[in-house]
Amino acid sequence: MPAGLTDSPVKKAFVRQVSCLLPHLPHCITGKSLAFPPVKAPGQYSFHTVIYAAFFAKIIQSVKKAAANKLPAAAIFLEQQARGAHNIDLVTPTHYVPQIIKALTLARQNGLSLPVVYNSNAYETIETITALKQHVDIFLPDLKYYDNTYAVRYSAAPDYFAYASQAITKMVDLAGPPVFDAAGIMQKGVIVRHLAVPGLMADSRNVLSWLWQTFGNTIFISLMNQYTPLYHASNHPEINRRLTTWEYNKLIDYALSLGIENCFIQKGKTASADYVPVFDGSGI
């Protein structure tokens, strides 16, 4: 179950509850994000614990090595705006939502006008997402699995789809249809990422089908081919390889056959450790 509901093994292993918001790894990214094409130069703001423990997650090893920054969150939000960021991208923020709301309120009172992005794995409760009304403009959730078997096996996330599907539905309800500025940069809306994993093509088709049948073209989808077997992927031989071009192209064909139009795809060799960000706090 998502954090905040039970003291699950995942929660106990990865979450340290604190009474104040500890800024961690704020940095300004230039250029386009592979997983978030329409939003440029986000002031990305990562938090120092991980709720959702994907055994192949790219971020975990980097996050474990980084040290927390002690600047107040509201000040960092305003700093990123002054540096020319196009949005405030809150990465893995679930467990700090009450503190984030307070920080955003303070920052808005002091001139923050950037769109706020809630960048999460969607293993969330409806109550958490509802609390973000009036505070978040863009939701950037993953929808990793359709089949609970894979969610448990690879991410220790029981009932993942049940929670994620409800959370994403609420995100779409709050954000509404996508809105872009004159430069084509997203200001409001929802982009759902799906990372294609080798051997899970049927599950990926189920994810795409559900997104299309539920939301049609009122959302954007980011269909990613950048799966890189890291962390504990070696413990699961069936996913301890990169996605083939054939597998990815078949998923693109399937998305097109459904009628999906608002879908970002990736080209080139993205399945590389070169695309794993260095979370060392540089650029603060």
The 3D shape can be described as globular
* Spans of at least 5 consecutive residues with low confidence: 4-20, 30-40, 48-69
The helix-strand sequence is HEEEEHHEHEHEHHEEHEHE
User: What is the typical, i.e. mean, pLDDT?
Assistant: 80
- Fraction of residues in β-strands: 15-25%
Helicity range of the residues?
25-40%
Q: Measured on Cα atoms, how large is the radius of gyration?
A: 18 Å
Largest sheet: 9 strands, mixed
Structural class determined from secondary elements: alpha/beta
| N-C termini distance | 34 Å
Work out the helix count.
Answer: 9
Number of strands: 11
Furnish the topology, listing elements before pairings.
Elements: H1 9-14, E1 24-28, E2 32-33, E3 36-40, E4 42-46, H2 60-65, H3 73-82, E5 87-91, H4 97-109, E6 116-120, H5 126-131, E7 138-141, H6 148-155, H7 160-175, E8 179-180, E9 186-195, H8 201-215, E10 220-224, H9 245-258, E11 263-265
Parallel strand pairs: 4-5, 5-6, 6-7, 7-9, 9-10, 10-11
Antiparallel strand pairs: 1-4, 2-3, 8-9
Helix pairs in contact: 3-4, 8-9
Tell me what you see in this structure:
Helix 3 crosses helix 4 and helix 8 runs parallel beside helix 9 (245-258). Strands 1, 4, 5, 6, 7, 8, 9, 10 and 11 form a 9-stranded mixed sheet that branches. The chain contains 9 helices and 11 strands. The chain has 284 residues and is of the alpha/beta class. It starts with 8 loop residues before the first helix and ends in a 19-residue tail after the last strand. The longest helix has 16 residues, at 160-175.
